Amino acid sequence: MTTIAFLTATEGIERAELVEPWQAVIDAGHDAVLLAPEEGEVQLFEHLDKADTRSVDTVVSKASVDDYDALVLPGGVANPDALRMDEDAVAFIRDFVASGKPVAAICHAPWTLVEAGVLEGRTLTSWPSLQTDVRNAGGTWVDEAVVTDANLITSRNPGDIPSFNNALLEAVAHGAGSTGS
User: Catalytic site residues?
Assistant: First the structure.
């Protein structure tokens, strides 16, 4: 069975950027697991308004890259900004990118990729306000709905979610196989 990790902070997650890829993963027959820095629930938002919550499955400090076939990093402004301050989350992201397994980040989530120091020589997209951060981290920023560079998949905003989901599922289908978890 293929297992896909979704990593978020405890609040500020853009609802559509977690819920819609999560549902696409489930609909494709894969397992989805929510990782966060703390146990309990994470608070989703619709822009600046609180939405629903989701239960955390595993604390990121206890997670192993070996247990997952892909990693999804949802956006929202506050979510990746908080997540990039968590050393365990940043280390997990860095290790996941280094593993060669698919890593999909949407909207503001590439801030965590900047923090992890994994963008040198990579081409990606994001919410437009991150383009200077991406360039300063050694990456090339482009304005496209979805960009796949080796194992890194990125998109700009919730409007790109259908393309983002397709690229994620295609990468998982062509991956090295399941973890056996």
Answer: 108
